[in-house]
Amino acid sequence: MTAKNFVNFHVLISHSPSCLNRDEMNMQKTAVFGGVNRVRISSQSLKRAMRMSDYYSAHLGVPSFRTRDLERAKTELIMLLGKEFDHSLIQEAAIRFVIDSKDVGDDGEEDSGDESSDDEDKKKRAVAPWIVDEIREICRAISTVRKEGLTDKERESALRKEGKSVGKGKEKRVLTKEACMDMAMSQKIGKRLLERIDLLRTAIGSAVDVALSGRMATSGVMLPVDGTLAVAHAITTHAVEPQDVDWFTAVDDLTQDAGETGAGHLDTQQFSSGVFYRYASLNLKQLQVNLGLVPDMKSAETTESRKRALKVATHVFHMLATVVPSAKQQSFAAHNPADFAIVSFADQPISLANAFEQPVKPAREGGFLLPSTQRLGDYWTRVNRAYGLSENARTFAVGEELKLGDKPGFASLRQIEAWIERDGQA
After folding, report:
1. How far apart are CA 125 and CA 218, in angstroms?
2. How far is the CA of 61 from the CAs of 27, 65, 254, 281, in angstroms?
3. Complete DSSP assignment for 308-338
4. How far, in Å, CA of 391 to CA of 8, rounded?
């Protein structure tokens, strides 16, 4: 049997009354699907909850940290790498990571020109994932070049620029001997970093969250990464009008003791409940490339590289089934794990969201969970039959078992996780 490259995860979670994801107006996020309103949890919210979860740190290591604030990034990196490298070296590495070499000054500092433009530059800079091992490699490259120094040939070439004018307008200046040497050193460091691209790519593999979600890079030596895990916005399988409003108060105990009545604070919070469909698809081959296990997409995967990718896939499923966004959880405590899931090894990503394009109606005895489960399993069967797909799929259910064809489902999370690790083999 030819190994399937994609793992599709279809998860149903019934959340008790809550407000797990809000918009800028402090209202629940929603979406219209099938002509009716659904409550929505954004993919960004889900991915961040997974990345910041205790389960992630226990099983997948230290995730990247994300910021567009260069100064805060420097502070964080100094705290993490300060015992290995000089602080000035770490700061230079951070600058080179996000800023094009032409914008790095002769001394390795950011050449921002007008100081008043710092805030504007920060706004233009994207929120980027910073990987500690990546910065460590940049520090090593810079340190090596500075210890080597410039060759006689490089010095002679640099000195030919002495006395020449560079820059325009207020930034125009005449290059001194020292400036020429600093510029040559900066250029040599930039060239060395390009020569170490393979080491930087390997360092990226230490942050599984970047290997999964990818990274867009537009400047500096930050390398772009193609994402391997596509995550959809979770929506309710049925129509929901999030009109329930909690009028909550905070009572001031001390004013009550003084004989005053009423609340010290009064506010409202929108909330609702529902059965949510979570969908995600994982590209196993791209994951192996991003983790540095195989050179590129054209290279053949190995038994060990696929085994490592399947282990990550297992952890991804566990988080999709158990991790819940933290918003307003102290008020609603909607810590609900998955009730039902379909996991399939497939030749392509396939969402089953259209199973719920016609909103689910409650069962005769009440509740949306059972009809949602039946609808999802039935739609998977119909899609596979209609398109002649050969997906290898199994189900997981907390309640009554649901078979896909002649394949029985699993009654425990650990059983289906072990099945994923075995590459879908019985």
Report:
1. 9
2. 34, 13, 46, 22
3. HHHHHHHHHHHHHHH----TTHHHH------
4. 10
Mean per-residue pLDDT for 149-173?
Answer: 89
CA 250 to chain CA centroid, Å, is 36
Q: Give the containing element (helix H, strand E) for 216.
A: none
Contacts of 58 by beta carbon, 8 Å cutoff, 6+ apart: none
Cα–Cα distances (Å) from 113 to 6, 109, 162, 222, in that order, read 48, 11, 21, 22
Alpha carbons 407 and 123: distance in angstroms, whole number: 53
Does pLDDT of 110 surpass 70?
Answer: no
**Residue listed under structure tokens 């790519």:** 201
Distance CA 230, CA 58 (A): 23
d(C-alpha 355, C-alpha 172), whole Å: 64
Of the candidates 122, 124, 134, the one whose C-alpha atom is nearest the C-alpha of residue 69 is: 122
Tracing tokens 């409650």 back to the chain, one arrives at: 362
Alpha-carbon distance 323 to 9, whole Å? 14
Question: pLDDT, tens digit, for every residue of 284-326?
Answer: 999 999 999 999 999 999 999 999 999 999 999 999 999 999 8
How many CB atoms sit inside 10 A of residue 24's CB? 5
Rounded distance between C-alpha atoms, residue 276 and residue 13, angstroms: 5
Residues 6+ apart with CB under 8 A from 252: 260, 263, 264, 265
pLDDT one-digit tens code per residue, 39-69: 999 999 999 999 999 999 999 999 999 999 9
pLDDT at 115 over 50: no
CA of 377: how far to CAs of 13, 22, 340, 351, 355, in Å? 15, 30, 10, 13, 9
Q: Which residues pair with 35 in a beta bridge?
A: none
Helix (H, G, I), strand (E, B) or coil at 352: coil
Phi, psi of 289 (to 5 degrees): -65, -45
Dihedral angle, C-alpha 275, 419, 347, 378, nearest 10 °:
-40
Number of separate helices (H) and strands (E) present in the chain: 16, 13
Q: What is the pLDDT of residues 338-392, one digit of tens each?
A: 999 999 999 999 999 999 999 999 988 889 999 999 999 999 999 999 999 999 9
Helix 43-51 × helix 303-322 angle, to 10°: 110
Checking if the pLDDT of 419 tops 50, the result is: yes
Q: Which of 215, 245, 211, 3 lies closest to 97 in space, CA to CA?
A: 215
**Cα Dmax for the chain:** 88
